[in-house]
Amino acid sequence: MVGRHALRHGAFLLEAAPQKQDRYADQQLIVRDHLDRRIPMGKSKSFTFDGGAADYLGTAILAFLVTSLTLGIAFPFGIVLMQRWRCKHTFIDGRRLTFVGTGMSLFGYWLKWLVLMVITLGIYSFWVAPRVTQWVVENTDFET
After folding, report:
1. Domain ranges, residue 99
2. Tens place of pLDDT for every residue, the chain, 144 residues?
3. Are 92 and 84 in contact (CB under 8 A)?
4. Can you tell me the distance from the alpha carbon of 80 to that of 78, in angstroms, rounded to the nearest whole number?
5. d(CA 53, CA 86)
6. Does residue 110 form part of some domain?
7. Whole-model pTM?
8. Which of 50, 60, 66, 92 is the most buried (most CB within 10 A)?
9. Domains contained in the chain, number
10. Is 13 helix (H, G, I), strand (E, B) or coil?
11. Pair (11, 65) in one structural domain
12. In terms of Cα–Cα distance, which of 117, 12, 35 is closest to 71?
């Protein structure tokens, strides 16, 4: 393939085809299936994000300080700060996401999980990470 980069991944051949109008423009991902059909994989128009670096940095520093100054005990409040920022800047089909969870609603679980992680020397964290993710997803909704 001249002028294209290709990667074979299982039954699919992935190739990055450069855009015609600008050689430095984002490349469109083309997938070839087992029948050698070209399937363009473009940017999603359903999902948009408008967050900026300065706003993110301020929120991340605050979440880090809340977590580290309390030796991890207030980690749920740091999660809430970051999730509210992320949802505030995320749109799905033009609808803004909102995060409805509170640090207090996760705090009781977090204390129990923190004790179990200390007792098991961190092994229990493999069970905690999916539970925290589940809590975040269950507390994310569309803005009304």
Report:
1. 57-142
2. 444 454 455 545 455 544 445 444 455 555 665 666 665 656 777 889 999 999 999 999 999 999 999 999 999 999 999 999 999 999 999 999 999 999 999 999 999 999 999 999 999 999 999 999 999 999 999 998
3. no
4. 5
5. 12
6. yes
7. 0.69
8. 66
9. 2
10. strand
11. no
12. 117
